[in-house]
Amino acid sequence: MRASTVAGIILIAIGGFFLVRGGSLTTRRDVLKVGDLKVTADESYPVAPWMAGTAMLAGVVLVVAGVRRKA
Question: Average pLDDT over the chain, rounded to whole?
Fold first, then answer.
């Protein structure tokens, strides 16, 4: 299998997962740092359905490109 085909399959799987189950991305940032004391905050951002659909569409394009290049 070509690398583009594998990457496309992975994008389709990830996009499908987020489209069906929903999900969020969490980031951690430092709020306050004094000496050895550090306070952090977790921020959660929901993944929009259009982003998951775009990932799936990009995956389909990569799979098709990989299959066409092979033939």
Answer: 90
